[in-house]
Design a protein that fits this description.
9 strands, about 375 residues
Amino acid sequence: MSSMTLAEEGLGTLFGTHDKHLKMIERAFRVSISARGGELSIDGPPERVVVVEHMLRELSTLSAGGHALRIEDIRTAIRVLQEAPETSLVSFFQPSDKALTTIRRLVSPRSLNQHRYLEAMRKHDIVVSIGPAGTGKTFLAVAMAAVCLLEKEVRRIVLARPAVEAGEKLGFLPGDLAEKVNPYLRPLHDALHDLVGYEKVSRMMERGIIEVAPIAFMRGRTLNESFVILDEAQNTTPEQMKMFLTRMGYNSKMVINGDATQVDLGPGALSGLDHASRVLADVKGISFISFADHDVVRHPLVQRIVTAYERNDRRHAQSSSARAPYRPPAGAQERGGSRSAAGGRRDDSPSEGARSSRESTASAPTPSPGPDPAIE
């Protein structure tokens, strides 16, 4: 058992109503916590006790500094420390970067990879994020774009997405160019409406501050002072991906998002996202962020669904390799032919007499046809 003392200030928000936050921490780390004022006793395996002590001290510092801890903050702190126990929660929840502080008024990262994703977008001009659905790739990219626009670091936001349906053909869509591609860009619009507001987004689109740019019409353009977001990048071809990346102009940022497990291209088609992740892996100035199923921040069932599908894919890959057809070693046929169903050797080679008969037939000259009576 370990004992620790916390500052009295902010204990109410740290412990939660009826110690709800402490009970959540107990269940997550499988320890026992008893509190009397600022005096806490923690009982459990030593390695878990150390992590819980670190967590409570960091959260106490945040709470004493005026940070109102919510239930989601406790869940996030648990998720972060389970992945990286030595992480500073103070730096995680209160970054020093001005833009990251501004973005937290709009949205808060809920995992360590989301935090790394935001930092990568601040430090690099091109960021490629790959991961399953529900990990916040699109939402955080739109939030960062909104902050950069608010801070006047860019002059416009450009939204792009390949026009590929998820398994069904919609046919020709009515309307002008923006109306035709709007169904494909709906997730980006939803994120903008949530963060900025519907009316403000509509005014920005009318003035060209927020622009919809279909991949098919981007060739030949140079996007200066723009925050460009390419969503569902797994449905681009390598040629489209190269063309998109080379549109980047001065003082611009690009964020490419995709899920390598949800490719809707035709059978055998190579995904531009997968191709770019291999070709550009060592290019300086490009950051790659990989999300996993534990980064899913939607409904808890979404994380279980993603995990179940990944488990099924691995099982299917293993069973496919186990059912691979047997290939006899080179020269096996020459050493003795095949075997019969009963297990004995069956010699499929032709008999000597049949072979010589075929050879004589093949070598005999073909008799020339006689004269045609009609001609005579």
